[in-house]
Amino acid sequence: MFPTIGTTQRKGKALYKAVPQQSDENSRAPFQRAQRRRQISVLLHLLTFIVGLGLGLTATAPFLALSTPERKAQQLPSVIPAQVFTPPIPTAWVPDSRYIGFSNFSNIMWHRLIKTTESVWIANPSAHGLGPGFEAPFNHTSKSQLPPQFYHVSNLHQLHCLNVIRGRYFELQLHLSTLSKQSERAAQDTAYHMDHCIEYLRMTIMCGGNWVIEPNSPPGTPDELRRDPFDHPLGWGGIRQCVNWDSLMAWQKQQLDAYEGTF
């Protein structure tokens, strides 16, 4: 930097004196220091942002890299075989007449769904972080000698409860003569079980294990599946990705066979 000097002379005297370079630098020093502080502050904020972004991406990248079924699989109990959940089964979202209404045929179909009970036997529950289970839901000679290692599977429990409510509904609607009408104790048992099942289903739904955003029926859905006779929207139609229920049943039976081999 060149010093500022006055070159105009009047009567042999300089009108202006040279300003020393050091004096010029001293006058600007406070501004330079303030500017450096601002630059350092900006750099520190930028560095903090970059570090935070890097840490966030490092923590979430493995999760974001997974597909939706794989993310769901990470949240599922390890005791249930993976083939129950993957690959998902594309399922037409339409009512199945085999389970609708009350008839010998529909009753048989419902019985097939719940005949294995809502329980599954687990050989090594502690390995899966499980506490004590239930006693076997059926009788055998060694029942009292074996540890309680049957566990309810929530979806099977829900299905069991739905069948209880279904049976009671048709019992009242069709004025059927059933076990609950044969004695006061049986009637009380049925009433208590109904209350239990309704509350269990309420809590299970509100716990939020399954979330699907349901649109209206897609184009091309038959009218009888779009709206009911009272003009209420039904929302049937389309395809959903579901678990392999047959695989779940096969695993439950396999576990039961293993349990029967222990006595």
Automatic annotation (TrEMBL):
Ranges that cross the membrane: 42-66
Biological or metabolic pathway of the protein: Mycotoxin biosynthesis
Coiled coil, from the record: none
UniProt entry keywords in alphabetical sequence: Membrane, Transmembrane, Transmembrane helix
Domain of life: Eukaryota
UniProt xrefs under Pfam families: UstYa
InterPro entries: UstYa-like (IPR021765)
GO biological process: mycotoxin biosynthetic process
Stated family: Belongs to the ustYa family.
Designated name of the protein: Tat pathway signal sequence
Gene source species: Metarhizium acridum (strain CQMa 102)
